[in-house]
Design goal:
Blueprint: E1 2-7, H1 11-19, E2 28-34, H2 37-47, E3 51-55, H3 63-72, E4 78-83, H4 88-96, E5 101-104, H5 109-149, H6 159-169, E6 177-183, H7 190-207, E7 210-215, E8 218-223, H8 236-243, E9 247-251, H9 261-273, E10 279-281, E11 284-286, H10 291-296, H11 305-318, H12 321-337, H13 342-363, H14 371-382, H15 387-408, H16 415-424, H17 431-437, H18 442-453, H19 457-474, H20 479-485, H21 491-502, H22 506-515
Parallel strand pairs: 1-2, 1-3, 3-4, 4-5
Antiparallel strand pairs: 6-8, 6-9, 7-8, 10-11
Length: about 525
Amino acid sequence: MYKLLIIDDEPIIRQGLRTIIDWLSFDIEICGEADNGADGARLCIELQPDIAIVDVKMPVMDGIQMIEEVRKAGGETDFIVLSGYSEFGYAQRAIEQGVNSYLLKPIEQEDLSAKVVQLHKIWSRKMSSRQSLNELRSLKLEKAMQRIVTREAGTTLQNEDMVLLTTHLGLPWTYYQVILLSDERRDLEPEEKEWLIVKLRETYDSERTGITFNIGTYVGVLSNKEHSDVNGYDWIPQAKDRFGVELVLAVGSAAVEIEGVADSYYQARFLIKNKFMNSRCGIAVMPGITSFDTCAASIEDAASFERIRDLLAKGIEAGNKQMISQLLRTAGALLLRQDWSENQIKAAFSALYVDAMHALAMKHGQEKPTSAEMTEKISGIDAQYSLERLVSYLEGCLHACCEAWKKEKTNDSFQPILDFISAHYREDIKLEFLAQLFNYNSSYLGKLFKSQTGMSFNAYLDDIRMQEAKRLLINGSKVYEVAEIVGYANVDYFHLKFKKSVGVSPSSYREKGKAL
């Protein structure tokens, strides 16, 4: 919308000018009025109207003097000069001030409309020319910024770039810092980048605190102030509502000279490229130690993904949520040690979940989870955009499994321990491991075993193993095979245990079974 200022000392003339033509049809709105040249000059300088209709003869300051004052102050308003006099002197002075629209009173509607149409064409040409000039200047600035932030170490800044940036940004600054923005899961579309650049320019260009530029798949900002709260942009939710964009940003290191801008850019780019591995503060990727780094410091060399998978299934059986959470973080730390990519880590956690569910089902003779159930969980894993979120998501899934497992079991708090032994007697189970798994003190659990079963833990475990060994031997299994199946790595030790428990050797018991 263009702005019109009416300046005439006669109220009836001002009233007539307001209604003589439909100004809104010309995309023009009246922004003010004045009844003398001095007030007219002041309003022209303050309001900067696109067009002003000015009477020549006015008190305090005539129209031509007023135009001269406005031009001295740098005003670019287009004037239509009104006069009841056709003297050449007035017209000549008006022309000297760049006025080419001169109308005699009384004003005819057709004449005024023709002048406005003429001015409209001039404005359109000016706007097109100004827009082209601004676009060219913006393109040059963007190219200069791209060259500066991607400059290789040891190379010098181009003088042309420095002159352009110094003129536009008022360099040197005392502080330089690069900020990069992107989407969590994909490259930004051109339309999304354009919208984002407009929003950033509203923040930085208006305050002259930085310059926004397009670089590769990112939108960048070179700022001259420290950013203590990069999550404070009030338009962040709009990006998601309008485009479905989930913004993520990274802030590079601060520099005190423009030569350090490239280092700031490359640090921000490294952070945003590795956003999945790093911790977050709102939408900002944060460098430094994560919870996985802390966990990695305590990982035993013997820890492995296979061991974690096995323990996860046991943790679900025992309802030990704390153990599950710790195992998932240990898994994350192990994968970070191996410098795996985001997709590799997601695939590894998907396999960990599927294998743990299958192992749990096989141990207890249950049906394996359906393909639809597995696909849902794997899709959920793939949707997480940071390792922290992935682990939290998987924690929720496995904690829910714990709750579901509890509901299937008896209310007897000791029975789950016996069920666990029945499912895992083939393994190297220790009382201490059971105590840790089910959150008992090992000494107390030993006494609880005696009171609940009438046997010590070791005797109870041996009894279960011997019952299974007898069944296998009677069915014709070989002694060394039976020893391994029921959990004895040493055949001779199995032989001694069996004879002590049953009264005959395993081979004799096997032969006895054949005779039956």
